[in-house]
Amino acid sequence: MNLKRLTLTLALALAGLPSLSFATQVLTTLPVTHSLASALLEGTKVQLKRAAPANLPASRQPSYFSGRGGASLHKAAQQADAVIGVRSIWRDDPLYPMARRSNIRIVEIDAARPVDGALPGIAVSGDEAYGAYPWLNPTNFGRMADVVANDLERLAPGDKAQIQGNLAGLKRQLLELSASSQTRLAKVDNLTVVSLSERLGYLASGLNLDMVEQPLPAEWDATALKALGDNLKAQDVALVLDHRQPEAAVAEVIKASGAKLVVVESDPEDAFAGLKASVDQVVAALGES
């Protein structure tokens, strides 16, 4: 085989391979943005990559990218077309600013509020709403899916139909989740709840539960414990929510008041599966109260 024929054969062989170097690449760092992107990009040619370890808390990401994670982000950003973050509700979200240093052309997708205002953002209270986990409200989660899908469709127009189909499937599941939870809650007499976590207010409001205000002290001393018990009894609270197991003294006060304690996992790796599990957990507990 002469050189000309060898070159032609090699060219034809390579033509049949996917051009990975030209595939659209997207970076994420947060469980909620990665889960949304994973669901929306299933079955597409878009490459999704985590720019930080999955178990790295959001609060540690700025220092991570300023230190030992800087080199890996620099390398990933040079190949990426876009990043998905939430700077509109978390001012210190480092992903886009840090990635832009390595790639001036990189596109920012804000999952909570479109950068270009093409769609309405999620409903939140205050500018720094990330710590309150607003996506635990099913309506907000669905709106975030709309926002991310809209930008991904424009970023990868060849995959638009697949992204739209994935979005429709996700929205259908959210609708079914909301409908079934409201049907079950309609049979419950007492929907009064207290949250001992700053993360679960949107979950409770998204389920249309009756939230009772409860001050969260720096320390659960005897005075704070008595105030909690008095509030739970006076308001006839059925359910107390927290994202972690409270100390034994707090749990004892909750039990003595007649309320039920539910510990919700607020940071699952799969945000949508976690949302469904949390909703079911809360609704089931209220149904048993």
Automatic annotation (TrEMBL):
SUPFAM superfamilies: Helical backbone' metal receptor
Alphabetical list of Pfam families matching this protein: ZnuA
GO BP, sorted A to Z: metal ion transport
One example GO MF annotation: metal ion binding
Organism, as annotated: Pseudomonas monteilii SB3101
Entry keyword annotation includes Signal: yes
Record key words, sorted: Signal
Protein name: Metal ABC transporter substrate-binding protein
Extent of the signal sequence: 1-23
Biological classification of the source: Bacteria, Pseudomonadati, Pseudomonadota, Gammaproteobacteria, Pseudomonadales
